[in-house]
Amino acid sequence: MENLSPTKSRSYKLSHKTEIKTELTNLEYMKKALSKLGFTYKEAKEGQTLTTKGNYGVNIEVDLVITGNGGQQYKDAIGFKKTKDGTYTATGDFYGLKTQDGKALNKDLLKKEITASSKEAELIDRLNKLGFETCQSEETKDYISLTLERWT
Hints:
Elements: E1 17-21, H1 27-36, E2 40-43, E3 50-51, E4 61-62, E5 64-69, E6 72-82, E7 88-93, H2 107-129, E8 132-139, E9 144-150
Antiparallel strand pairs: 1-7, 2-5, 3-4, 5-6, 6-7, 8-9
């Protein structure tokens, strides 16, 4: 084993790449979910390439990149890429990122929150198309309560 004295050093580029397979297939509902959760994002236009830019050199081509969440800038560290089966995978450098309320943004939290908010957006959209209007929405830690009306 090489003995490293104070005059000799090595630098290592660490990777904190994480991939999260989701069940989400609709980009529009996912964007609504990201907005609801306080995230801003950038979507790749036709012919445009977006990549994540994590702190440790995690650069991956994505379809949509999270650019921030209010007070904390994400510096394009996380993005979503559509896979061959039509679902989206969240990928990037999650290390040190936090939600607006200070929780560590890890794969379980992101998957749960994005999925729940995306499904809520889809449900509201479908019910609105059937003539229902959202009158009241209440969200707690454990559930989402919607009150709907439909006038015929």
